[in-house]
Fold this sequence. Notes:
It is a single chain. The chain is 32% helix and 20% strand. By secondary structure, the chain is of the alpha+beta class. Strands 1-2-3-4 form a 4-stranded antiparallel sheet. A hairpin with a 2-residue loop joins strand 3 and strand 4 (113-114).
Amino acid sequence: MKLLTHNLLSSHVRGVGPRGFPLRLEATEVRIIPVEFNPDFVARMIPKVEWAALLEAADNLRLVEVPKGPIQGYEQDETFLRKMHHLLLEVEVVEGTLQCPESGRVFPITRGIPNMLLNDEETQT
Length: 125
């Protein structure tokens, strides 16, 4: 699971609502998987990033050189865009868990795929 994916996921356990974000990320296996650099794509993703969630995830993974937020003129700053490209698209959580901050529900990450399926009792109203 890429950190970009993590930054977009939230828990949909019944009764949680917007308090199901951000999911707490715990990783037991992380890999760096090179991806072709596309500065235009990364620049378009920057406004969508929830920075507090990204910084917490990066801290949990003990990543270094993580930008603390967008910089002025980031669209033309290749150094910034490459750091964000690496962080969002090349850091891959292969095994681990995501935990809902409100309900405590744990979702497994297996072979890079988060399983966000809920049991019937978690979805009934």
